[in-house]
């Protein structure tokens, strides 16, 4: 199996955690999002993922993009520790909380959005910072409420799941962008527990072969 990704990409980080959790071997193929105008925009990569985004998973003849689709694919093809454990209602909560971060927050803070704000719209660094603060606050405030309703040891009850896999990289991004997390005690507590798990720790951006200082 091959995973095309970038060390600091939150969506790639999700896929790495999922692969590690399921103990699946994979070759990690870095796609540099900034060098040379962004390798995600080159023809060779666009053939794998026309959206010009990482990650992309290649499993034999199967090419899968979108980190949530990758996780569901892995769960169906490689049963083992489930990324969507429990019954329908529990699984629905896991999916909803995953999407709250992966579909409602991350696309608003993605590299290409930030580049468009500054390069095309001429938004200042202060403006861009206000943008990031605004969307993180909205999303994390709601996520904190969801955690108060659903969390046990992890985001949803006491079983590790896809929701945890979505939370970890989003907190990493928040810290990177200097977001104040003091208003989200439950989020910080769950994140603290998650960070120590070996399959999560091994997926950390700093541990990847393409990591930069
Ligand atoms: N919904 C997608 C998001 C993918 C995504 O936004 N990837 C980012 C890195 S986290 C990317 O490739 N950005 C490149 C760009 O914005 O040009 C997924 O979950 O896979």
From TrEMBL:
Query: SUPFAM superfamilies, alphabetically?
Result: GST C-terminal domain-like (SSF47616), Thioredoxin-like (SSF52833)
**Keywords assigned:** Isomerase
Carries keyword Signal? no
GO terms, biological process: glutathione metabolic process; L-phenylalanine catabolic process
Protein origin, superkingdom: Bacteria
Family annotation (PROSITE patterns): GST_CTER (PS50405), GST_NTER (PS50404)
Q: Which GO terms describe its cellular component?
A: cytoplasm
User: Could you tell me which NCBIfam families the record lists for this protein?
Assistant: maiA
Instruction: Give the protein name, as stated in the record.
Output: Maleylacetoacetate isomerase
Q: Which organism is it from?
A: Pseudidiomarina salinarum
């Amino acid at each position: 199996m091959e995973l095309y990704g970038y060390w600091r990409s939150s969506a790639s980080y999700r896929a790495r955690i999922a692969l590690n959790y399921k103990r699946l071997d994979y070759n990690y193929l870095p796609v540099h999002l900034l060098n040379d105008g962004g390798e995600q925009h080159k023809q060779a990569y666009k053939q794998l993922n026309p959206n010009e985004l990482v990650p992309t998973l290649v499993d034999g003849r199967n090419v899968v993009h979108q980190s949530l689709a990758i996780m569901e694919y892995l769960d169906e093809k490689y049963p083992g520790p489930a990324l969507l454990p429990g019954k329908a209602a529990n699984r629905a909560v896991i999916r909803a909380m995953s999407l709250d971060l992966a579909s409602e927050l991350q696309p608003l803070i993605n590299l290409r959005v930030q580049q468009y704000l500054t390069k095309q719209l001429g938004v200042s660094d202060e403006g861009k910072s206000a943008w990031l603060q605004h969307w993180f606050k909205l999303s994390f405030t709601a996520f904190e409420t969801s955690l108060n309703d659903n969390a046990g040891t992890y985001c949803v009850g006491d079983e590790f799941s896809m929701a945890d896999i979505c939370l970890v990289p989003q907190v990493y991004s928040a810290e990177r962008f200097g977001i104040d997390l003091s208003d989200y005690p439950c989020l910080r507590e769950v994140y603290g527990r998650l960070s120590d798990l070996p399959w999560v720790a091994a997926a950390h951006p700093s541990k990847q072969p393409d990591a930069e200082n």
